[in-house]
Design brief:
Layout lengths: L8 E5 L1 H4 L4 E7 L7 E11 L3 H26 L3 H21 L2 E10 L2 E11 L1 E3 L7 H20 L7 H5 L1 H5 L2 E5 H16 L3 H14 L1 E4 L5 H18 L3 H21 L2 H23 L4 H19 L4
């Protein structure tokens, strides 16, 4: 991995390891009164990021995936020159990210009797949160499609295949935290570059597809997912009413109600009571829109009600 010169060895470190306690002591083998061997690990931040720097890295990660998909499209069109340009752009971004990632000094000490082992490593995060400054589907759709195809192929070889409709529902993935394995991005893009230079377009495409399918992970809270959808639906319904689109607003309110019903089934009983009450209010408003006054004043009042529903929903987020 390309990094700035530092006085310690550089290795990737996943976020879960960084989240460990800063000082962990444990016995490798216990004696009756004293451990015969002990180990200590101390993790200290060396380089941290400002919010602005974190956003810049996330934006770079999103563009790495955009260049990856652009390269695949160029390969499909047998446009080797454009594909190579896209891959090189992606590699430039990978280097920028690698040089800017937060770094941690890990000190390991292992002792037995009068003998002590001590070593220091400087490590960086492996996964980077992805942010796309354009429409999010520009990044999500190609990745989800690659994951779906990968699992379809696995299913043909006796492995369990995910349900296709789950992968086709981009709204599910849109609510997730999308993270790029920057080490895998480096390896995959370099492999694609090498294969392209040899004229092996299919192999280059395979390396890029692997990055999309295996180099990106999605993290989301399944409990809050329908709540997120309901909040989005309420905002959309409010916008539709402001534009006088009452039919669309009614359909959107129904979706919000359905999502709240899903949330009710997986949340605690105390919260479920409040969810049911809000769901009834939404259904009542939807019915009144179907038969009632569609004057500007009436729609304005309905819009304010929906805004209050949205405020109640967002308070339920953890």
């Amino acid at each position: 991995m390309s990094v700035a010169t530092v006085p310690f060895k550089m290795k990737p470190l996943c976020g879960a390891v960084i989240a460990l306690a800063l000082l962990v002591t444990f016995p490798a083998q216990a004696a009756e009164d004293k451990a015969r061997i002990t180990a200590e690990t101390d993790i200290q931040p060396v380089v941290t990021l400002t919010d602005q720097e974190s956003q810049a890295i996330s934006l770079a990660a999103g563009r790495i995936l955009l260049h990856t998909d652009n390269a695949r499209m160029a390969i499909a069109a047998k446009d080797k020159k454009t594909a190579m340009e896209e891959i090189k752009q992606g590699l430039t971004l990978v280097k920028l990210v690698e040089r800017s990632l937060p770094k941690y000094k890990v000190t390991t000490k292992i002792t037995t009797g009068d003998m002590t082992y001590r070593d220091e490593d400087e490590v960086s995060k492996r996964f980077v949160t992805v942010f796309n400054e354009q429409f999010i589907d520009d990044v999500i759709a190609p990745v989800v499609q690659a994951k779906a195809k990968s699992r379809t192929l696995k299913g043909r070889h006796g492995h369990k295949s995910a349900k296709s409709h789950f992968f086709e529902d981009y709204s599910v993935w849109r609510q997730a935290a999308m993270k790029l394995n920057i080490v895998m991005a480096d390896n995959a893009l370099n492999l694609a570059k090498d294969e392209l230079e040899k004229g092996n377009l299919d192999n280059a495409d395979l390396a890029l597809a692997l990055l999309q399918a295996e180099g990106v992970v999605f993290e989301f809270d399944e409990v809050e997912l329908p709540l997120i959808e309901a909040a989005d639906d309420l905002k959309l319904a409010q916008l539709e009413l402001s534009e006088g689109k009452t039919d669309q607003a009614q359909a959107t309110l129904k979706r919000a109600s359905d999502n709240l019903k899903k949330y009710e089934r997986i949340t605690g009983e105390t919260r479920a009571k409040d969810v049911r009450e809000l769901q009834k209010e939404i259904d009542k408003l939807s019915k009144s829109l179907a038969k009632g006054d569609h004057s500007e004043n009436a729609l304005d009042k309905a819009g304010k009600k929906i805004a209050s529903y949205w405020e109640r929903v967002v308070k339920w987020f953890k």
